[in-house]
Amino acid sequence: IDASLTRCSQQKPTPTIIEPMQNIFVAADFENLTMAFTHLLSNAQEATQDDGQIDITVTGYKSEVECRITDSGEGMDQEFIDHRLFKPFDPTKKTLGMGIGAYQYQQILTNIGGRISVTSQPGEGSCFTVTLPIAAD
How much is the average pLDDT of 62-74? Predict the structure, then answer.
């Protein structure tokens, strides 16, 4: 997560780690995992006003780690989450793009045994929860 925070440090609002934890290791390619978290944080920044809030909470469990990225941005309705958010080649932003960012990070996380879920309300922000298996010792 630290590498993703560095990559997103020039954009506002600055994400805040609420509950810093000691190092937790997951069995994943560093660059792919960093790319996935950078996409998540960047999307949260784009959806949130400069004076808004983006919080990161990391919780370790026996066999997995959960990372919650919560923003005070514009939010999404359930229809959008269910039918468009993770659909490839369906641009959902006004800016130019191919519409593969969310799909790509979902695939990266799934390929390493992770999960991603989303809760959101229009006008109230979103919470993306990423759950990853902890690497065996």
Answer: 94
